[in-house]
Every structure is written in C-alpha cells, then in structure tokens.
Amino acid sequence: MNKLLAEFLGTFFFCAVALLSGNPLAAAGALAVTVYALGYVSGGHFNPAVSLAVWLRGQLDKGEMLRFWGAQAAGAVTAFLIYKLLGSSHDVIRKLETPAFRALLGETGFTFLVAFTWLHVRTARQQLGNAYFGAAIGLAHYAGASSIARISVGACNPALGLAFVLAGLVPGWMILIYLLAGLIGGGAASVIYRMLNPND
After folding, report:
1. Cα 183 to chain center, whole Å?
2. Cβ neighbour number for residue 51 with a 10 Å cutoff
3. Secondary structure letter of residue 127 according to DSSP
4. pLDDT of residue 31 exceeding 80
5. What percent of the chain has pLDDT over 90?
6. What is the per-residue pLDDT for 96?
7. Which of 20, 58, 185, 200 has a CA-to-CA distance to 116 between 20 and 30 Å?
8. Phi/psi-derived region of residue 139, left when phi > 0, alpha when psi is between -120 and 50, beta in every other case
9. For the chain, give me the number of helices (H) and strands (E)?
C-alpha cells in the first residue's frame, strides 16, 4: 500500500505541475524531486512506461505493475481535478495539427529515453547507490518534453498524456498515441537495456 501511495503522490505532483505551469522545466523539476523524495518507497516510477520496462527487466511482478498503473492513472486524474479547481494563469491550450505518425514517433522516442534512463540509473549494478538518479530522470523528461512540445505537447509518459487529454490540451485521440508510445517505448527500453547489459 505504501508503494501505491508513493506512486500516486509522485505522479500527481508531476502531472499537476505540468498542467498548471505549462513549463517542461518545471515539470522536470517536479519529477526529479519526487523521484528523490519517494524513490526509496516505490522506486519512483511515476510513469506506466517505466513500470512496464521494470517489469520486463524482471524487477517488478505483473500484479504490482498493474497496481502501479492504477495508482499512476489515479494520480493523473487527481492532478486534472486540481488543475480544473485552481485554473491556470497562462494559455497552454495548443491546437495540434501534427500527423498522428509524427506524434507517435516523437512520443515513442522520448518515452524510450525516459524509461531507458530510469533503467540505467536505478537498476544497473554498476550504478546502484548513485546520488544523481533523480536529476538524470528529470533531465531525460525535460529533453523529451522540450523537443516535441510543438508536436505532441511532450508528455513522454502515458499518465501525463491522460492528464493532457482530460484537461483538453490535446485532442481526445491523442490518448492512443500516448498509450502506444508507452508500450513501445517502455518495451524497447527494456530490450535495448538487456542487449547492452546481458550479464546484469
């Protein structure tokens, strides 16, 4: 239960900052601090693609992964409710006219980067106990969100994508893009990680 609460809280604060600020750097900062603050409880996934990658890596059982997904989705929905309650002091509504293929390609590539970074800095034996894991994960998100902000609003995370859809910041069909990107990006991150670290 503690792990699920940690996943809920981390995802909530990350998504709430992303929605309220509309600023990739602020969202990345929120992700970094919540990973540092709660990583010792649940690992600090706060991203269904990361949970998928960790499951495929063999460090999370399937049932726990599904429960993490539920907690992450609940965090995203709660962030949306807070966003609606507080409103926003800026205009972050974007009319996306990007072809679905470009949006999927961008989201998949940078969701992969986030999950791939997470696997290396949180699970690789050579890097266990490092003090920079939160910063690395936050910077990976910032790099992705900044690079594809004009293409797909730069979720790099299906939970944040859900929050974007609920808030009306992207068209409803974009939820399929975020979900597919999470599955492909998270899965590919685990595969490539195993290729690079066959003995880990």
Report:
1. 12
2. 29
3. G
4. yes
5. 80
6. 61
7. 20
8. alpha
9. 9, 0
